[in-house]
């Protein structure tokens, strides 16, 4: 083991991402089962009251036998349901408990993780040897090219006609172009990432309710709101973005909020939540609602062509022709089919309107 990748003292993740996500799924099912249990218990309690009231009428001889039979059947049916729900809950709890490794399983997992880490480090050494061999190959090809250049000068000196590559100088050109570069450097970065060794990391606080990032040997990659996580620049670049499209939403202005926040921002949110006496999640929720509202309002104004300059310089306007059979209201004026106008909006907006058949090239 070399280059700081010796894993004998490494700390590995005690759980896999797969098992944690499965536990989350099962716990979500438990919440649903608990709701069914509570609902059924309330229903049974109400039925017991109906039964007691009905039986109390026996001395008077005014018992509604139909209602009593219905109540008893309903009690029996809900009793079976309650037993089934409780059995399902116990089964799910047993599966959840089995997902957590025993001490012996944890030790075996750590041993296998260490073996995998050793293999990764050993392979990194091979990658360095491969790059060394490729560099030697490149050097040989360079020396061959230099000899070809000398041969060309010598041929000219004797008025030797070489024709189209008559000196066979380009035989290895295609091969040289196929040789990749920086292989070992890329392998080094991968090994540092998967082994959590030597990376330049910065701490952030998770903002999503549940955030799943690529699993490494050191961490399962399942994080929850408020967790502190160390990330590299590549991971941070996307998770901090405020303009990620919400793929499950059809609203064109809808974006996903950032999945993480800086430690400093979290401190401010924490102080605000403490001051207002509310959970931190509530502060973040309303920040997201406000951001979404602003994005929607901005999108609406851009679509209407009003106050464009306040938000974005659209550059030179596009000249387009109205194509739709209906009239188009734009900039306080109505345009009919065939009329020309200058559209000052953004390209993507104009593209969408053209695809919908509203505008065409003049």
Molecular structure report:
The structure is a single chain. With about 350 residues, the protein is mainly alpha-helical. It has 4 domains: about 15-100; about 105-195; about 200-305, no CATH class; about 305-360. Helix content is about 55%, strand content about 10%. It contains 10 helices and 12 strands. It has helices spanning about 15-55, 65-100, 105-155, 175-180, 185-195, 235-240, 265-275, 280-305, 310, 345-355, and strands at about 200-205, 210, 220-225, 230, 245, 255, 260, 320, 330, 335, 340-345, 360. The protein has a 3-stranded antiparallel β-sheet with strand order 4-1-7. Helix 3 packs antiparallel against helix 5. The protein is extended, with a radius of gyration of 35 Å. The chain starts with 16 loop residues before the first helix and ends with a strand. The model is unreliable at about 305-315 (pLDDT under 50).
Keywords:
mainly alpha, three-stranded antiparallel β-sheet, extended, 12 strands, 362 residues
Number of strands: 12
Q: How far do the termini sit from each other?
A: 69 Å
Task: Summarize the biggest pleated sheet.
Answer: 3 strands, antiparallel
Structural class estimated from helices and strands:
mainly alpha
Low-pLDDT residue intervals, each spanning 5 or more residues: 305-314
* Integer count of domains: 4
One letter per element, helices H and strands E, the order comes to HHHHHEEEEHEEEHHHEEEEHE
Q: Roughly what is the average pLDDT, rounded to an integer?
A: 83
User: What is the beta-strand fraction?
Assistant: 5-15%
Shape: extended
Any idea what the radius of gyration is? 35 Å
Helix content: 55-70%
Strand order of the largest sheet: 4-1-7
Number of helices: 10
């Amino acid at each position: 083991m070399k280059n700081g990748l010796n894993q004998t003292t490494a700390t590995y993740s005690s759980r896999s991402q797969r098992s944690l996500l499965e536990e989350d799924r099962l716990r979500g099912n438990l919440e649903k089962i608990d709701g069914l249990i509570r609902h059924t218990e309330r229903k049974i309690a109400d039925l017991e009251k109906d039964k007691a009231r009905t039986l109390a009428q026996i001395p008077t001889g005014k018992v509604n036998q139909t209602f009593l039979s219905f109540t008893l059947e309903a009690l029996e049916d809900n009793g079976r349901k309650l037993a089934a729900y409780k059995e399902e809950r116990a089964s799910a709890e047993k599966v959840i408990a089995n997902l957590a490794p025993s001490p012996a399983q944890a030790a075996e997992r750590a041993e296998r993780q260490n073996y995998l880490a050793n293999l990764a480090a050993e392979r990194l050494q091979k990658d360095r040897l491969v790059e060394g061999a490729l560099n030697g190959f490149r050097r040989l090809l360079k020396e061959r090219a230099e000899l070809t250049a000398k041969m060309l000068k010598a041929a000219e000196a004797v008025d030797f006609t070489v024709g189209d590559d008559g000196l066979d100088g380009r035989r290895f050109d295609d091969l040289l172009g196929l040789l990749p570069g920086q292989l070992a450097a890329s392998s080094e970065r991968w090994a540092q990432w998967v082994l959590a060794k030597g990376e330049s990391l910065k701490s952030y606080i998770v903002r999503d309710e549940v955030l799943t990032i690529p699993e490494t040997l050191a961490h399962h990659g399942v994080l929850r709101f408020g967790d502190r996580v160390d990330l590299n620049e590549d991971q941070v670049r996307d998770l901090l973005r405020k303009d990620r499209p919400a793929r499950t939403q059809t609203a064109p202005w809808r974006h996903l909020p950032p999945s993480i926040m800086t430690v400093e921002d979290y401190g401010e949110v924490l102080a605000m939540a403490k001051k207002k006496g509310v959970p931190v999640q509530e502060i973040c929720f309303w920040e997201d609602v406000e951001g979404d509202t602003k994005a929607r309002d901005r999108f609406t104004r851009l679509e209407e062509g009003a106050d464009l300059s306040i938000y974005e310089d659209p550059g030179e306007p596009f000249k387009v022709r109205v194509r739709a059979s209906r009239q188009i209201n734009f900039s306080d004026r109505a345009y009919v089919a065939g009329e020309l106008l200058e559209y000052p909006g953004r390209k993507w907006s104009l593209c969408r309107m053209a695809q919908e058949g509203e505008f065409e090239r003049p």
